[in-house]
Every structure is written in structure tokens, then in C-alpha cells.
Amino acid sequence: MQTIQYAAEIIKELNRTVALIDEEAAEKFVDSILQSKKIFVAGAGRSRFMGQAFAMRLMHMGLEAYVVGETITPNVEKGDLLIIGSGSGETKSLVAIAEKAKSLDVSIAIVTIFPESTIGKLAHTVIKVPASTPKAKSDSGYKSIQPMGSLFEQSLLLFFDAVIMRLMEKLRKDSDTMFCRHANLE
Questions:
Q1: Higher pLDDT residue, 111 or 135?
Q2: What is the pLDDT of residue 95?
Q3: Hey, which residues are catalytic here?
Q4: pLDDT tens digit string along 52-88?
Q5: What are the C-alpha distances in Å from 16 to residues 19, 21, 74, 119, 129?
């Protein structure tokens, strides 16, 4: 297969995967963001990168958003929201973060392949992304031509970008107003 043919197959996989995300759960996720005081985003590996991109866009919208583990991340409090991106929902460091958040009465949302995972059971809001991952204990039933967790990670970024667009609509923001908060020391 040629490079562009691979790209076309990846797009087909993304279309199939995103079409299976529950719209009602997605809307609940959007509402949980709007109802929170501060938003904390966590993930590991490439999922963390997708979460960082999401937190940046939330900041561009004027929302108080942080990435867990960064030196400038403040404490969580009741009324805050922890968003975790984890294909397996079993990453030990993320499980520990979710358990700590739960003990502090912080709302938890997870975007995952496995809603029945440890973090899925701790979360108030669960978004299922039907993708494949080599790290899960059981087969999700979804196959990909891509290596490792690529389909989940790409779907995570697309979902997060779609959430940003829905938030823009609800908050009456546009790209121009968001650009005012873009980094200018570059």
C-alpha cells in the first residue's frame, strides 16, 4: 500500500470510530465542562499529548484549564472536573489520580475504550471510543491497521476538537476571540 492509501484507510477507520461515539454522553461531557470551576486534564503517553492540546484550547476559550503533573497546576477542589484520556482505563498512574480526585469529591470524566475499566467505574461521565488497543486485558472487538493505540489517540483528539467546537457554539466564541489568548512570546 502507498502512503496516501494508508492515510485514506486511517480516515475510514476514524469515520467508523467517531460515528459510534454516543451523542448523549458527549453532550453530558460538554455540560460537565461548562458546570465546572476548574478543569484538569490527565493522560499518559500519546493520550497525554491529546489532552494537552485539549487543555490549550480550553484555555483559549477563557476556561480555567490545567494539565495534571505540570508545575503550575493548582490543587483540585469540589466543583472541579478531572478529565482522563485512557484507552484501557487501567493505567496505574491514572487510576491513582482518579482515586485521589474521587476522595476529594471532584467530578471525573473519562474518554476510554473500556467504560467498565477501573477508572470508568470511578467516573461520573464516561465517553466510549470504540477503538483497539494492545494494552487492554480483553479484545475490544474493534480492529485497526494502525500500530498500537493510534486509532484511539487520533479519535481522542478528534473528539476533543469536536467538544471545543460545541463549547464555542454554547459560549458564543469564535476563532478570532480565542486567538486573543494565543501565546505571544513565541
A1: 111
A2: 98
A3: 153
A4: 999 999 999 999 999 999 999 999 999 999 999 999 9
A5: 5, 9, 38, 25, 11
Distances (CA, A) of 142 to 40, 153, 180, 185: 29, 14, 41, 43
CA 136 to chain centre: 18
d(CA 166, CA 172): 10
- What average pLDDT does this structure show over 140-164? 90
